[in-house]
Amino acid sequence: MALTMLAPSRTSTSSSSSNVNPYPQVTRQNTFSSSDGTRSARTSKRYSVTALYMSMHAHDKDIEIEDDLARVQKTLRDLKAKISSQSKKNFVLEKDVRYLDSRIALLIQNRMALEEQNEVASHLEDSVEILEGTFPSDQKTQQYGNLFFLLQSEPRHIAALCRLVTMAEIDALLQTVMFTIYGNQYESREEHLLLTMFQSVLSAQFDTTPEYSSLLRANTPVSRMMTTYTRRGPGQSYLKTVLADQINSLIEHKDLNLEINPLKVYEQMIKQIEEDTGTLPSNMPRGISAEEAAENPQVQAIIEPRLTMLMKIANSFLTTIIDNLNETPYGIRWICKQIRSLTKRKYPDAKEQVICTLIGGFFFLRFLNPAIVTPRSYMLVDGMPSEHPRRTLTLIAKMLQNLANKPSYAKEPYMASLAPFVHHNKARINKFLMDLCEVGDFYESLEMDQYVALSKKDLELSITLNEIYTTHQLLEKHAKELNKAQDVSHLNVLLAELGPAPAQVPRKENRVITLPLYSRWESAIDDLTAALDITQEDVCYMEAKSTFVQLLRTLPATSPAVRKPLNLTKIADTAAKMRDMGMFRKGMRALELLEQLRDLGVATDQDGYLLLREEVEQELVHLGSLKDKVVEETKKLDEVYKTIRDHNTYLVGQLETYKSYLHNVRSQSEGKQRKQQKQTVLGPYKFTHQQLEKEGVIQKSNVPDNRRANIFFNITSPMPGTFVISLHYKGRNRGLLELDLKLDDLLEMQQNGQDELDLEYVQFNVPKVLTLLNKRFARKKW
């Protein structure tokens, strides 16, 4: 902001940090003092006033500054625009891949009708570049411009909508909200409005959740929204900076096995012994319980040094994360701050541990740990990590999550062995989570930005027809609930004028619309000095400083006018005598401003405008050092842009795989439909309790030991992908229980990490059941 206000030009706008700090950084704070020495009320707004002034007069720019700083700033701005655009493309691709993942089980089993397969195929059409277009009606353009100005500038409407939509609708809304309405990830106004929307959503979530333990953990539209926010450019930059080296260093050790689950260690141990000796000792039976494995001395000897190594690696990760506190994007820290504030208000008696648990639920569960567990998906590594490093990364993520949570090891008893890591680092992590919250608010600067927005004539969105229509449809669908939640009178007027929401257009007909944003109820503010209760002295002084900085950045270095000590009158007079019309006008304006400052009593020519001259000189020094910061930020964001481009290539590759697979499945379906072959029933196949227990399919049994020999299971497949499992007791005609099971249900359980299938008398291991079914019930061309 400091640079924008001091050096306004087409190529010299401020490079806001990727952390979007709402406060301008300045080298010196000057104040006008009253006769009693107190600070004038208007001086606290000095620097924001300058930004405001320059925004008001952006259309008056007539000098193209071409110094080194301007050039590197333009490079940085262009790079940020590319990151924002590419992030949106990746989100759309990820949405398609997620949709196909949810349908792939049906495709595998060839249980889709051709009409359904054609619908899925439509998601895989070769996507041509979306062309630009316009609304056929200027009236529609203005009506939608009014609607999206309202949605952008009053985030409460989107916040309410985010709480109402279903999981099936949230992705379409997030695409528009995160990457279009607030798509400029490095522009302070849009970022601050988006964070304001988050605050509203979180506040409602706290109000409607009775138990804090379930807050921010369930897979809801709100949690999906928070996860999506972390995947934007600033979050991606942080992950690359903080985690990439640590993860790459770990995965280089492909053979380093740090498994500590006693049952898995035991299985790996007897498998290795059998491979080495060709036989298995009698004292090492298969199919033992987890408790028996944990008590095995050999297993304990293997695990002990692994625990030490795991804690050492986890400490290294933790130290890196803590040391890079200041690299954390401002928006993510601000969300942590809101979680802390809302927790204190909602649960006044909550201890610090409770607050840290909730912050950790966002910061680790939603942000860091997914990248640690699946670094390939976040493009932090070049290839898929091998089995052992992949398992180690999962354990590291569990350790960090347990550290951030209130420690509980009920689900995985073997993790209790890592309790010393939690014990030694608990105070350390709590301090870090609290430190994350120590960032300033942005409400004053946002209020200023909102005023500026009303004075601008060029606010616009680049948005597709389908994004417009989807948002319109969702607002229309949930209008009744929105009316109950808050005052939406302005929104209702706009929706009534627009009429029914149009249907989605086919992909090939989708167009990008440049939608000018208009405020329907706020008239454009021409005199912002009056609107914001600031004085003409402020504006005049800051315009003078900004103008002289521009002139000095544009005049040749060899010009006598730029010699020190600076002579402001000489600088203005030199510019006013130049043939370049832009410089001529700026020179004349600079002379006028010096005269106005004298008349207002703000400055005098008797000391050569000393205060103004010193500030101009200091700002030039500040701009000189700023160039290095801009270059450094550009290098970081170059890496981020490369990462996002790599991720795009990865996603496109996944879609190509689906295309090939879908083509084969559809060909087989068409062949089967032509032949009209009748599906045959497979089975029943009989499996004893002992057999399934030995193969690990039964991972826990409630059947008494003396009755297990009489228990058996029949499994039948009446049609592809459908199974009937019945449990029988010898001598009884009817089964004890019967379960209908769909293969895609099992696949979904596996994808969600649900390893246990409860059959009342026994609990099956889902991955082992899948292996068994695929092996015994394989059909041709499944």
UniProtKB/TrEMBL annotation:
It holds the Pfam family RasGAP_C. SUPFAM superfamilies: GTPase activation domain, GAP, RGC domain-like. Residues 189-405 form the Ras-GAP domain. GO terms for cellular component: cell cortex. Residues 9-18 have a biased composition (Low complexity). Gene3D superfamilies: GTPase Activation - p120gap, domain 1. GO terms for molecular function: GTPase activator activity. Residues 1-40 are annotated as: Disordered. Residues 19-40 have a biased composition (Polar residues). Signal peptide: none annotated. GO terms for biological process: negative regulation of Ras protein signal transduction; signal transduction. PROSITE patterns: RAS_GTPASE_ACTIV_1, RAS_GTPASE_ACTIV_2. This is Rho GTPase activation protein. It comes from Terfezia boudieri ATCC MYA-4762.
